[in-house]
Amino acid sequence: MTPTWCGNIFRKQKFLLETSYRSLLFRALASKSDVLWFRSMFAHKNDARKDAHSNLLSKKETSGLYKIQFHNVKPEYLDAYNKLSAEVHKELHNTADYPCEVVGSWNTWYGEQDQAVHLWRYYGGYPALMECLNKLRHNKAYLEFRKERSKMLISRRNQLLLEFSFWNDPVPRTGPNIYELRTYRLQPGTMIEWGNHWARAIKYRQENNEAVGGFFTQIGELYVVHHLWAYKDLQSREETRNAAWLKEGWDVSVHYTVPLIQSMESRILIPTKSSPLQ
Questions:
Q1: How far lies 235's CA from each of 49, 102, 231, 239, in Å?
Q2: 247 contacts 193 by C-beta, under 8 angstroms
Q3: What is the model's pLDDT at position 54?
Q4: What is the structure's pLDDT at 96?
Q5: Given its phi and psi angles, is residue 220 left (phi above 0), alpha (psi -120 to 50 degrees) or beta?
Q6: ω before 127 within 30° of 0 (cis)?
Q7: Taking a C-beta distance cutoff of 8 angstroms, is the pair 148, 129 a contact?
């Protein structure tokens, strides 16, 4: 058997194997394409819209503008930070000149550690927000607070939010409770579809008074949704969430909203002593 003849056999076998592989791959891709095309016939699609989703999904901006703050605190300063924040928040609440209020203040229990979360409401929408900012720039006590607070922080970020029209208004409640802040980062362009599904889904989660508030971002990271829930403890959370799956229709809502999500995050929060939501 000559080397040339052996080489020809080897090349022929290699060619046949590669041809067979390409054929199998083509059939697999074609089959997958057929499946995807078939599924697309039944997929939920959004019609093109000419109106902003904020106008369709939110309550009036004059009553439904919120700000959420995430402050990462140096561990050794967390208690001092909470005390200082409580004093300043109380001062702002007692001053009628500022059309804003703290809805809730928490420390993260599970999630990012040594983190403070504050939720503010502005009565009067964006004009109220700007009024507060302009007045605080000339408030010497507040400027001193910011200077002192800066020594305690590692980082901070905030977002401006609108309130979903179909969610409960967040109102003060007695405790003790734990809170869960579930954050969903959606695929761009899917907010209307998300809202349509959750307008129906929320009814499955209101029997135990666990639904506190639902919001979506307007400024900051966009296409972000925050759902705020209250539970007596972690065991109550587990039982309440499991009970939802026993209700006909909840599974359908989850089925259609999960594909809209890019990522999701859950924080378990403990209210500070000064928080209106206890």
A1: 43, 28, 9, 6
A2: no
A3: 62
A4: 83
A5: left
A6: no
A7: no
Which residues neighbour 145 within 8 Å (Cβ) at sequence distance 6 or greater? Answer: 84, 88
Round to whole Å and give the CA distance between 48 and 42. 18
- Residue found under tokens 């605190």: 73
CA 195 to CA 193: how far, in whole Å?
Answer: 5
CB-based burial label for 63 (10 Å; 0-12, 13-18, 19+)? middle
H helices present in the chain, as ranges? 3-40, 53-57, 78-93, 125-136, 140-150, 191-201, 234-244, 250-257
Q: What is the pLDDT of residue 51?
A: 52
CB-facing half-sphere around the CA of 212: CA atoms within 13 A: 22
Helix/strand/coil percentages in the chain, nearest 5: 45, 30, 25
Confidence (pLDDT) at 8: 43
Q: Which stretches of the chain score pLDDT less than 50?
A: 1-49
Q: Which of 209, 183, 220 is nearest to 67 (CA)?
A: 220
At residue 266's C-alpha, the angle toward residues 265 and 271, to 5°, is 140
Distance CA 275, CA 87 (A): 12
Residue 185 burial class via C-beta count within 10 angstroms: exposed 0-12, middle 13-18, buried 19 and up? middle
How many C-beta atoms surround the C-beta of residue 86 within 10 A? 16
18, burial (CB in 10 Å: exposed 0-12, middle 13-18, buried 19+): exposed
- Token code pair at residue 117: 């979360």
- For residue 156, give Cα distances in angstroms to 128, 249, 277: 22, 39, 22
Q: What is the DSSP letter of 116?
A: E
Predicted confidence at residue 55, as pLDDT, reads 63
pLDDT at 121: 95
